[in-house]
Specification:
The complex is a heterodimer of chains A (217) and B (402).
Chain A (H helix, E strand, L loop, with lengths): L2 E5 L4 H13 L3 E5 L12 H4 L7 E4 L2 E4 L1 H12 L11 H36 L5 H22 L12 H4 L2 H10 L4 H4 L2 H11 L2 H7 L7
Parallel strand pairs in A: 1-2
Antiparallel strand pairs in A: 1-3, 3-4
Helix pairs in contact in A: 1-3, 1-7, 1-10, 4-5, 4-7, 5-9
Chain B lengths: L7 H6 L7 E4 L2 E4 L1 H11 L10 H29 L7 H22 L12 H16 L3 H4 L3 H11 L2 H7 L25 H5 L6 H6 L1 H20 L24 H10 L4 H12 L5 E8 L8 H14 L7 E8 L6 E9 L5 H6 L6 E5 L5 H12 L9 E7 L1
Antiparallel strand pairs in B: 1-2, 3-5, 3-6, 4-5, 4-7
Chain lengths: 217, 402
């Protein structure tokens, strides 16, 4: 009985799911999956996620993978009446979908590359940061955030004046960008982006999810 | 065991007559932790002692911790049950609670770490892993260790390391606790061909110089094999099973399942059929009715969060499902929403094990229903039926526990 999240509190994609769980006030159990021993590439986890990644969700008989799908499922099932997806109004729902897609297609690529270069590569793979590659990705990220800066000067949040999954999906990589790389200024130097970032990270649910993101060099 | 380790020759090597003992050209070494350190030092520049003075200190810290706070208590719990020490229930209780305290502390440390010190296996992990192996395979069942998920994850990580697997092979967690032996004296080791196995040569220095990790585990493995074989020869004392106090109540004419069926299957004329049926079968001697009122309704500002919190409460009440029926109402058309419930419990009180295990209980005010009071009976009916408006307000939702 109850929701099980298979993953790790230090993982960005797991934290994305935990942030929604906290927003919805749900009971859950976090079942650790140890990447350092390849647990995610072996049964039983590979049966939950054939791509061998975390997180995976178990809710009764349902098993789901892909964090951005798990978040939507949880909102649909347990968040009736919430603004996180706005499914009752097609136009607003489309706007939320659009900015969810922006995070996936435009923000995620460069931000995860920067965090990989400055944090995961040295921490887990004993590698050295490729400063040139990291700088190039940071520049790309800057251009994306320029678009955010314009949008956020018009609305308080990405999809409108309401907090939605589109904003929430940014929390975990944004956290590591600021806490574990020298490129936090990408957020802090853009006033509307910074104000939005402060707004979304000060939510109690966001703080709870970010509390697990403790990786550092 | 009990034979060759008590001979004068053996006692010269270890005056306390225990295994393991390492024979070296320079003399014997006993105490498994000391053997481990000696063997580890034989290979210069290995990572088992960490890469800095502070790491070394932490390794020693965790070796001491797992020796005193984990291994000692596991031993105190297991050995009486294997007949190697007198059994005493109070001593065992103390050993278990001390072990839990140690495991909790270990779990806290491991919440964000894969290994005890640094980012690789060190001597601390080898020793702690072996100490936990002893516990996991002999007496710590899954239901015990599931309270310490980080320790579980750590344990399986360590024993699945290739070097560990080579020595200890596949690890199976204990499925039950060994029974308390009957009052006959502890079994004397039998003079069978088991003796031959126990005479296996203890690890010699030449072998271990090349494989520092493995010697320690070979020694430990040897220690354990003979003991496990002996347990099976003993009489199995019947295991005491704790009975639920509610099962010991005098029988009641009310059968909870009959009420649950009546509630679920009555599709029409609910009041005439189900409500009337309820009061016909209700037994105030064998059961009791309770109103509960959430104490912190001002927190209930978001509808779906309130509903999810009530669902969480009902999930945690799963342990009383055989003995209870409940309705939880979320009331109001605007926040803050009020959460009120009705509960039917076997027995005349809210069961103690529910109060002990379910922390939500103390978040509610509980009032026993006076079933002679017509007003209170009507309120019970209204809550069973999901009557709207309830006390003048709309219902956001009504959840049933059955």
């Amino acid at each position: 009985m109850g929701i099980k999240v298979y993953g790790s509190p230090v993982s960005t994609c797991t934290a994305r799911v935990l942030a929604v769980i906290e927003e919805l006030g749900l009971e859950y159990e976090l079942v650790p999956v140890d990447l350092s021993t390849g647990e995610h590439k072996r049964p039983p986890h590979i049966e939950r996620n054939p791509f061998g990644q975390i997180p995976a969700l178990e809710d009764g008989d349902l098993v789901l993978f892909e964090s951005r799908v798990i978040t939507r499922y949880l909102v649909r099932k347990y968040g009736k009446g919430s603004d996180l997806l706005k499914e009752d109004t097609p136009v607003e729902a489309a706007t939320v979908d659009q900015w969810i897609e922006v995070e996936t297609q435009h923000f995620n690529g460069p931000v995860s590359a920067v965090v990989f270069q400055h944090l995961f590569l040295p921490l887990f793979f004993g590698g050295t940061t490729d400063e040139k590659a990291a700088a190039a990705e940071a520049e790309k990220l800057g251009k994306v955030l320029d678009v955010y800066e314009v949008k956020l000067s018009k609305t308080k949040y990405l999809a409108g004046d309401f907090y939605s999954l589109a904003d929430l999906h940014h929390l975990s990589y944004g956290h590591y960008l600021i806490a574990a790389t020298p490129h936090g200024s990408l957020i802090h130097s853009r006033p509307h982006v910074k104000a939005w970032w402060d707004r979304i990270t000060s939510r109690p649910a966001s703080k709870k999810a970010a509390a697990g993101l403790v990786l550092s060099i | 065991m009990g034979v060759s380790n008590k001979t004068p020759e053996f006692l010269k090597m270890n005056p306390i007559g225990k295994v393991p003992v390492l024979e070296t050209p320079e003399g014997p070494v006993f105490e498994s932790n000391a053997i481990a350190r000696y063997v580890a030092r034989l290979k210069a520049d290995n990572p088992l002692f960490g890469s800095s003075p502070i790491e070394y200190a932490q390794i020693e810290q965790w070796i001491d911790f797992s020796t005193f706070e984990i291994d000692a208590h596991i031993g105190r719990w297991i050995f009486p049950r294997l007949g190697f020490a007198p059994y005493n229930a109070q001593t065992e209780e103390l050993a278990i609670s001390s072990l839990k305290r140690g495991l909790e502390a270990l779990s806290t440390h491991l919440a964000s770490k894969t290994y005890l010190v640094g980012h690789t296996v060190t001597l601390a992990d080898i020793i702690t892993g072996c100490n936990l192996y002893n516990g996991f395979t002999r007496i710590l069942t899954k239901s015990f260790t599931s309270e310490f998920p980080h320790v579980e994850r750590y344990f399986w990580t360590i024993v699945n390391q290739p070097t560990f697997r080579k020595i200890i092979g596949e690890v199976k967690q204990a499925e039950s606790i060994p029974a308390v032996p009957s009052s006959k004296p502890a079994a004397r080791p039998k003079e069978t061909k088991k003796e031959a196995k126990k005479e296996e040569p203890k690890p010699k220095v030449e072998e271990t110089a090349a494989k520092p990790k493995e010697a320690k585990k070979e020694a430990k493995k040897e220690e354990q094999k003979p003991k496990v074989e002996e347990t099976f020869e003993e009489e199995e004392a019947p295991k005491p099973k704790p009975k639920n106090p509610l099962d010991l109540l005098p029988p009641s004419k009310m059968i909870l399942d009959e009420w649950k069926r009546l509630y679920s299957n009555t599709k029409s004329n609910f009041h005439e059929v189900a409500i009337k049926g309820f009061w016909d079968m209700y037994d105030p001697e064998g059961y009791s009715l309770w109103f509960c009122d959430y104490k912190y309704n001002d927190e209930n500002t978001v509808s779906f969060v309130t509903l999810n919190k009530v669902s969480g409460f009902l999930q945690r009440m799963d342990l009383v499902r055989k003995y209870a029926f409940g309705k939880m109402l979320v009331i109001g058309s605007d926040p803050p929403y009020k959460v009120k419930g009705l509960w039917l419990f076997r027995g005349k009180e809210v069961p103690q094990f529910v109060i002990d295990e379910c922390y939500d209980i103390e978040l509610y005010e509980w009032t026993k229903v006076n079933t002679d009071d017509e007003v209170q009976r009507e309120r019970v009916n209204a809550m069973i039926e999901d009557l709207e408006p309830f006390e003048g307000e709309a219902l956001l939702d009504a959840k049933c526990f059955k």
